[in-house]
Design brief:
This protein is an alpha+beta fold. It has three helices and five strands; from the N terminus they run H-E-E-E-E-E-H-H. The structure holds zinc ion (ZN). Residues 91-93, 133, 137 line the site of zinc ion.
Length: 163
C-alpha cells in the first residue's frame, strides 16, 4: 500500500467531475486500499478519489474510532433524501477550517461494492452527512461551496492569509 498525496484547496483539480468506474479490477482495489491508508493517516472519516487526484467515482469512508467499519462506494447515487440536518463539517482538502452545512438527514443510495455488485444503503446523521460530502467531491463541489457567499468570502480570506 502507499500513501497518496492529498490535493488542497484552491487546487483547480478539486473542481473536476469524476468519471464513472467501468471495470473494477486489481488497479481499482489498489486505489481503494491506498485511499483508506491515506485517509487513516490524515485522521479523516471520508475520502473521495478526486481529493487524491484520481478522476474516478470512488469513495472510502470509516466513521468508527477503531477503523473497523470500512465502507467503499463506487459510482454511488443518492436515490432518496429525507429531512434536513445541520452539522459542522471539515475537509482533508481544506485543513483547519470548519463550518455548519445543511444536508439531507437521511439518504438512500445505490452503489457498487469492490466486487462490482450493486447494493442499496440507508444512512442517517453523521454517515449520511459524510456520504453527501464525499459525493459532492466527485461532482467537483467542496463543502464551502454550500455556504452563503459572505461565509465563503470570509473563509477564502482566512485561507489566502495563511498561504
Ligand atoms: Zn472533503
Amino acid at each position: 500500500m502507499s500513501i497518496l498525496k492529498i490535493l488542497y484547496y484552491p487546487n483547480r483539480k478539486l473542481k473536476q467531475k469524476a468519471n464513472l468506474v467501468s471495470n473494477i479490477d486489481h488497479n481499482i482495489n489498489k486505489i481503494i486500499n491506498d485511499m483508506f491508508e491515506t485517509m487513516y493517516l490524515a485522521k479523516g472519516i471520508g475520502l473521495a478519489a478526486t481529493q487524491v487526484n484520481i478522476n474516478k467515482c470512488i469513495i472510502v469512508i470509516d466513521i468508527s474510532k477503531k477503523h473497523n467499519q470500512q465502507l467503499i462506494l463506487i459510482n454511488p447515487k443518492i436515490i432518496k433524501r429525507i429531512g434536513k440536518i445541520i452539522m459542522e463539517e471539515g475537509c482533508l482538502s481544506i485543513p483547519n477550517i470548519s463550518a455548519p452545512v445543511i444536508r439531507s438527514e437521511k439518504i438512500i443510495l445505490q452503489s457498487l461494492d469492490c466486487y462490482g455488485r450493486l447494493f442499496e444503503l440507508q444512512a442517517e446523521s453523521l454517515l449520511s452527512v459524510c456520504i453527501q460530502h464525499e459525493i459532492d467531491h466527485l461532482n467537483g463541489l467542496l463543502f464551502i461551496d454550500r455556504l452563503s457567499l459572505s461565509k465563503q468570502n470570509y473563509i477564502k480570506n482566512i485561507i489566502d492569509h495563511n498561504l
